[in-house]
């Protein structure tokens, strides 16, 4: 059976007292994310992602296969996660599958089967899918030709949205809210809420599975502050772009 890490009473008291004073053990602010580092391998679809002490390696592959009879116009997309004891004894293996119309080659006969293998190296995949390129294909009648990477430029996957998930953790009856909790903070929090956005800033999902009730004012204040910071960054960026364009016109 998977086991969560155990912390002493002194460790718990220290972390909770620090949070109450607006401090975190890893030195971050309450509204500060962990540092993200993304690197790509030589082959398309191989990605090494680090988020703080969390490390994930994802590999995307594809092959031509026959579509499911009840979905003749769609290809197959599957995600397989490998969560071994090297990452954390608390993990269990999970798997999910979904279909994509853009992966269909010949309706009812041939389609792409794209598989993303996600391996968690340390616990504390969307990038791999965006980096992946499949071979181009041409169809003449019933003849399907799969072109090599030297014959034609490989084709990126058709990804409509790049979801960005932000998890808020609640402490001290919901009066204190922090972002991107560490494993230790996750074990001590009283509740959490995850909001998923796309690259346009549109909310795709809000999930809150139990835990302490959310104090609307505290959460709204944090959210509004982050939105104001984002707006200020966008204004500064637009001003820099406008100034740069003006310099180019004058030159």
UniProtKB/TrEMBL annotation:
Major subcellular site: cytoplasm
Subcellular location: Cytoplasm; Nucleus
Exoribonuclease phosphorolytic domain residues: 32-124, 161-221
GO cellular component, one term: nuclear exosome (RNase complex)
Keywords for this protein: Cytoplasm, Nucleus, RNA-binding
Any Pfam family hit: RNase_PH
SUPFAM superfamilies given in the database record: Ribonuclease PH domain 2-like, Ribosomal protein S5 domain 2-like
GO molecular function annotations of the record: mRNA 3'-UTR AU-rich region binding
GO biological processes: exonucleolytic trimming to generate mature 3'-end of 5.8S rRNA from tricistronic rRNA transcript (SSU-rRNA, 5.8S rRNA, LSU-rRNA); nuclear mRNA surveillance; nuclear polyadenylation-dependent rRNA catabolic process; rRNA catabolic process; TRAMP-dependent tRNA surveillance pathway; U1 snRNA 3'-end processing; U4 snRNA 3'-end processing; U5 snRNA 3'-end processing
PANTHER family: EXOSOME COMPLEX COMPONENT RRP45, EXOSOME COMPLEX EXONUCLEASE RIBOSOMAL RNA PROCESSING PROTEIN
Family as reported in the entry's similarity comment: Belongs to the RNase PH family.
Name the record gives this protein: Uncharacterized protein
Native source species: Terfezia boudieri ATCC MYA-4762
């Amino acid at each position: 059976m998977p086991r969560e890490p155990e912390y002493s009473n002194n460790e718990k008291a220290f972390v909770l007292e620090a949070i109450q004073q607006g401090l975190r053990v890893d030195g971050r602010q309450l509204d500060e994310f962990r540092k993200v580092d993304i690197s790509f391998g030589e082959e398309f679809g191989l990605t090494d992602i680090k988020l703080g002490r969390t490390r994930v390696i994802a590999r995307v592959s594809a092959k031509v296969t026959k579509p499911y009879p009840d979905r003749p116009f769609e290809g197959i997309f599957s995600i397989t996660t490998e969560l071994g004891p090297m990452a954390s004894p608390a993990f269990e293996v999970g798997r999910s599958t979904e279909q994509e119309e853009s992966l269909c080659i010949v309706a009812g006969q041939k389609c792409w089967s794209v598989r993303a293998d996600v391996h968690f190296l340390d616990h504390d995949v969307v990038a791999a899918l965006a980096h992946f390129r499949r071979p181009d294909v041409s169809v003449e009648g019933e003849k399907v030709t799969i072109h090599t990477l030297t014959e034609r430029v490989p084709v990126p996957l058709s990804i409509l949205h790049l979801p960005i998930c932000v998890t808020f953790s609640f402490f001290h009856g919901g009066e204190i809210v922090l972002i991107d909790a560490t494993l230790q903070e996750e074990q001590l929090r009283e509740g959490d809420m995850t909001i998923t956005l796309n690259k346009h800033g549109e909310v795709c999902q809000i999930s809150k599975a139990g835990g302490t009730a959310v104090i609307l004012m505290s959460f709204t204040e944090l959210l509004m502050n982050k939105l104001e910071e984002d707006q200020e960054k966008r204004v500064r960026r637009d001003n820099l772009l406008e100034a740069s364009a003006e310099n180019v016109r004058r030159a």
